[in-house]
Structure formats: structure tokens, C-alpha cells
Amino acid sequence: MYGPKINQARDSLIDILRKLRPIDAFNIVLFDDSLTLFRESFIAATILNVNMAVEYAASKVVARGSTNLLKAINMVDSTSMIDDRGNIVIFLTDGLPSSGATTNPNEIRANIRNANYVTTGSKREYKAVIYSLAFGFDMDFGFLSALSEENGANARRIFEGVSAKNQLVYFYDELSDPYLSRVSFSIFNLDTRTEINKQVKVVTSRSEFPYFFGGSEIVMVGKMNAISTESWGICVNAVSSTGNTIIPIPSSLLDSLPSGISNEGRVDFIERIFAYKQIKYYLIMMDIARDESDAVKFKTLALNMSLEYNFVTPLTSMVVTQRLHDPSAEMDV
């Protein structure tokens, strides 16, 4: 990375550092064809440490050599994570790997998955979620987007000539205050405390999330076969600062509608939200598919649902037809 992109990356890093809270812990990994760590392990975001980190970033974040993305991420993985904290990696790059054991994007993604995934029972968790900030117009955004999506996060574009600072303010504010981690939703019989998911067919847009951040929201939409019990509800499981948290939500609380939505339009409204969330899920799965057959499968699912519900998506388009101008319809005033 060089030129305006490296300047934006440096300014963005400094902005992020200055927004850290005293309860946060952080480290900096600089990478090109070699790696440099600010500290050997995470350190507290005290005023002194942040000021030293800002000075370090101002002097050390400069254009140097090529880009070894794989080694950089593996170095982050080998740095001791803090178990009782939300571990977040913010990856500032142009997404153009040019050195290292491999520069193949698919091989890099596979190596990162192997290093970052932790399997607990039937669940897959991440040692850290990886957000990517992609700088410039020539970045490989598809690669960075797939890398972040399959590691619990997403990628953002930072364009040259646009104020990175303003974009960073909004971005960092979104994830500066993690309330809950390991958030999952399930449908329960609240009388017997048994999971209905295992008894009837349940389809949800998405039911597991690495983090819930303050000021954000989680929308889960689903459909299921008719059930015999009235006492069903949603059970939210998560980890908070005080330990494991279970929040039961009875179905009676789910019956209220947003203002302006009538009962007549209720089914169509919820169904379209479900379709919208499903299409987004299929598009993500298409991007991160590991082989061509899976990519085609998810693309087909997304396309068919987009056409069924008349949604404009990256796979569909909107055609506007305009009436021909009729001069005879003009009137003198």
C-alpha cells in the first residue's frame, strides 16, 4: 500500500486509537513482506499507552514493501487473546496480497479459517471477529468481504479522495461498545423448557451472532410449522460481563406490530422481511462458497427468491417504463 491509501490507513488507525476506552486492550500489527508488533501482547488503553501508540503509528505506518496478508492474520492469531473480552481485529489494507507462502485469495481464506475457528460441540466460534477496511479503488473487495463474512464480521470500503475520518467515526462507533457475545436465538416451549426447533420444522434467517453492540439491533425472522402449545417463545442465550445470560421472550410479546402496520398486511409484511433476510444470507453464502457448485446453488436460491418477491438485488434489476411524450397533450397557458 502506498500513496494516498497509506496516508488514509495511517489517519484511520490514529482515529481508532484515540477512540479507545480505558477498559479496552489493544495491539498493533504492521505488515508488508515482514511483520512488526507494537507490543508483544495486548496492553490496556491507558492515556499513556494510547499516546505512545499514536506516536508509533504516525512514524511507522509508511509505504515499505509488499503485502503478506496471511502472515499478518496468523500473527494476530498467535498473539494471546483475552478470553473474557470481545476480541475484534480491524484489518486496514487494500486487499492485494503480493508476498508470503501464498498469494491465492482462496488459500489465504482457508488458512485463516483454520487458524481462527474454534469448534465447541456442534457450534463454531471465532477466536476473533475480523473487520476489513479496504482502501482505494483497486482493492480486491470481494476477497476482503468474503474473508470478513466467514469470520463473523464484514468489510467496508474507504475510497481515495473521501474523508476517511468521518467514515471511521461511524464505523468505530458501531463496534466500540460490545454488550453481549455468543448471541443465539432458539424457539422454546416455555412450559417444558424444551427446544421446539428439534420438534417441528423451523427456518430462520440467521440465529447466531458473535456480538451484539450497544446502539445496534439484531433482527431474526423465521417460519415454522403449526405447533400445539400456546406457551412458545424465543429464548436468547448470550454471554455478558456478568456471565451466561438467558432471556426468555413469550410469544405474547411477539404479537405487537410496529405502528402503521395493520393486521391485514401483517403476514405479507413479516414474510417479505423474512425473504429479504434470506436473500441477504444467500448472497453472503454465495460470496464465501468454497467451490463453484455451492456458489451456483446459493446464487440460484437468491435469484429465485428475488424474483418471487420482486426485490432488486445484485442478481436482478429494476426496469422503468416511461410513457412516450405526447405533444398533443400540451396546453397553452
UniProtKB/TrEMBL annotation:
UniProt domain VWFA: residue ranges: 1-175
InterPro entries attached to this UniProt entry: ITIH (IPR050934), VWF_A (IPR002035), vWFA_dom_sf (IPR036465)
Superkingdom of the organism of origin: Eukaryota
Name recorded for this polypeptide: VWFA domain-containing protein
Organism name: Dreissena polymorpha
Species lineage: Eukaryota, Metazoa, Spiralia, Lophotrochozoa, Mollusca
